[in-house]
Write a structure and sequence with these properties.
mainly alpha, 1 helix
């Protein structure tokens, strides 16, 4: 006698297909959000680093004297 618990269940198959579709969509949204946050964090860190070094005081340069004309 065949085991009835090993038969395919079409309702379970439909339910799992819908669940996998929803889970895939949620996973894609989460991955996209994580990628956006990572990109924003890198852009902010780069901007902060550049503003830190760009605003650093510079040593006074040597003044050039006037050239004498002949």
């Amino acid at each position: 006698m065949a085991n009835p618990f090993l038969k395919k269940n079409p309702f379970m198959s439909l339910w799992l297909s819908g669940f996998h579709k929803a889970a895939g969509t949620a996973r894609g949204q989460a991955a996209a959000a994580a990628k956006r946050q990572g990109t924003d964090a890198v852009a902010k860190a780069t901007a902060d680093w550049l503003s830190l070094w760009g605003a650093a005081p510079r040593p006074a340069g040597q003044r050039r004297g006037r050239r004498k004309t002949r």
